[in-house]
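Q: Convert this sequence to structure tokens.
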Amino acid sequence: MAPDDPPDLDPVLTPDYGYAWSVAYDASVNTVVAGSYHSGQYQYDVGSFPVDDGYGSARVFVRTSNSTLDWTQQAILIADDGAGNDYSGYTVDVSGDTAFVGAIGPSGVARYFVFVRDGSGSWSQQAMLGSEGDPYADDGRVPRVKVEGDVAVVERGFGRKGKVFVYERTGGTNWALEHT
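A:
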């Protein structure tokens, strides 16, 4: 593994069903975000099938030294207003100290939770993008996202119903839809 390669994260250390369903890596800040859409707060077994509440989450890992093996979990990102069957972590991306965590939502409406890391390594939710009023967010398909700095491009829907949304962060904290 080259020094810029993402880590081989051992699923035994993070055994959530759906762990690393989606993964993003930013080599410039040695950070991996791994989405786990089934990492519920309340897990239980029905026979041999694990069942959870569908909250979902994303885990942040950072390289702690120049060794390719020294990766440490820094945080678990859970939406402030998360609900059962949100399935957060279905899609993720990371750019610098900003992470996007995509969720289907309890009613099948796709949304994104934006998290930011402060200088001490703590993560907090900065925004939630997407809403019940978005005509392209309720197709039951979690959109894909690419974030770079203060711009995020979100794809929603597919075929003739598909659309691309461009969000921009201004003033360091405010995300606004700039273009569709």
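The two ends are 40 Å apart (CA to CA).
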